[in-house]
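hi support,

uploading two proteins for the ticket. first:
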Amino acid sequence: MMSRSCADCHVDVYKQYAQSVHGKALVEAGITDVPACADCHTAHSIEHPRTIKFHLASPDICIRCHGDEKLMKRYDIPTTVATTYLADFHGVTASLSKVSDGEEKQLVVTCVDCHGVHDIRSPGLVGSEEMKAKVAGVCAGCHKDTAADFPAAWLSHFQPSLQHAPLVFFVDLLYRILIPFVIAGLILQVLLHLYRVAIRR
């Protein structure tokens, strides 16, 4: 197993990995679908997880599995964890960010900021309250002097629904109806105007 080969030298990192949601699945349950060392670092071009390059590339690494509908269905994990991040401000910013040689910091929040690198956490593993506290700490890194419940303004990895964020759900539904109606009205107005011009000629 590649992870145990890496553990010969990287003992502390392996211990962290073994306690993560992926490590527990691999080591304790024998599930081989989870990512191991070489899946994130690759065997011959190992990138340090604290570099800007790795930080910005981490969503792509996570989405390889978490965006795979067939794989996620096997473990009853919704692929919305990927799509909601990509649609969010932070996901869009990460997608558009480019790394330049002189940059020391990128103010972009990616998967590893909230979930960890080798010690990847999930609400199911550490509990929702601990996860909320971790996310609040990440938010406070950029959004200074914010209240402890600041992350509650974020929809997390949920799609708006009648059960979760019903107000956002209804506003989104309104826009889905209103915007096509307005565009259709504008097109109709332009066509009627052209028709009137043609008739007058």
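and the second one:
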Amino acid sequence: MLKTEPRDYQKSILETAKENNTLVVLPTGVGKTLIALMLSVERLKKYPLKKILILAPTKPLVEQHFESFKKELPELFTDLQIFTGAIHANKRKEIWQTAEIIFSTPQCIANDLRKYLYDLKDVSLLVIDEAHRCLKNYDYTKVVEFYKRQAENQRILGLTASPGSEKNKVKEICKHLAVDEVEVRTRDSPDVKPYLQEREFEKIEVPFPAEFMEIRELLKKLYDSKVFQLKKRNLLFGHGNKITLLKLQQRLALQARGKNYMAMIGMSLCAQAIKISHAIELLETQTISGLNEYMKGLMKQAEQKKTKGVQTLVKSSEFNAAFVSLTHLIAKKIEHPKIEELKVYIEKEFKEKKSSKIMVFSQFRETATTIAKKLNEIPEVNAKVFIGQAKRTNSSGTTGLSQKEQKKVIDEFREGKTNIICATSIGEEGLDIPEVNAVYFYEPVPSAIRKIQRAGRTARLMPGKIYILITKNTRDEIYHYASAAKEKKMYKTIESIQKEIKNGEKTLADFK
């Protein structure tokens, strides 16, 4: 009945999902959607008058699933409908009555359910894509709670490339989805490996220049002084890093509501330390132009007297000395060594294969813009930036892309008009981006989820390569080893939870 012949592992997972609420953990690009489609057909056959609800976190992903189902299913087999905020609520209520498979974002459904526009009584299958988001108060969890209370013939299917490495979070996902079984496959699983291509991996290490070290020392001195003041006031204990500072800031914000003077001073010190920590991160791992942009932004905030903390920062001798050194580097047209090294590798890539398609991932928009500009100096290259929608413009001209503009970038990439996409995290999750010959990580990401998603863009139907650029003696090295350790831990965590579910241990009694 389906136009695509399912693979053995998809058939095997389907058998589990038919009888159990299942969390499916599969690498990006190996056919999670087809499993959802096959299960949808099974549920429609079993409950012909019931509905299927497919949820994905973004509108482009919702549309992608809709198109996949439309392409695979015979015409007139079932009534497929997309729900978005653009459709009036009363119209959604009307469509709900006759639709058989509904595709939506969780926000849209959660809002409708809260307004009693319809209920989920007749939904025989709930599919949660990117199920690692099914945590805390995200709308996924709200829809699932409604479903567990209202539906008569319940079946839940969660799909993700990685649920994360922390056991308590994976358990929380399983609890929200009332999971009976976890089906996990890696690229090396015996039933998956035959379908995938070889994937090469290379770590590209670049030195951290002496001139950069001087700027880092100045910024580090400023950062340490803020952390010292927090410790001196008995507000911070132990090691001060970005995560502990953010947590402390949240805690102090609650205390500051009662006009607690010490908490207000602590919040200001935290904010200053976090800003300098970010500046060091830009220097170590991103671009000199990005750091320059950021420091100029802080100076502008100080000029506008946004906060006393920013004014204090900008007035400090260390900040000013760092900015002077930075200005000298820019005058000499010195950029981060990763930019030049990346260009060398990409040039080599196109010499070897003129028809290459490449994705370069970076953490920040400004970096993606700088990379695209540099790579477009190569005659064979037409690089485009692929970023999120938020409209934040700076002097480099970096602004958000509307969904229409995002679609245009992907379409041009598919057609070969563009051969390099320089993407931020928007390019990691789910979107139907054509397969690429190589993926470059401009910097390592400390998250196992994001690393797996980035890497999954290559080596599906053709051999692929993954390159990770690492600046020596910087947080790049720490992040690289952290994500590798988290990925190993993730599979151990899933294995452990699978055993607990199979053994019916009391610790998982609350899964239902």
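thanks. also noticed: The domain at 8-193 is CATH 3.40.50.300 (Rossmann fold).
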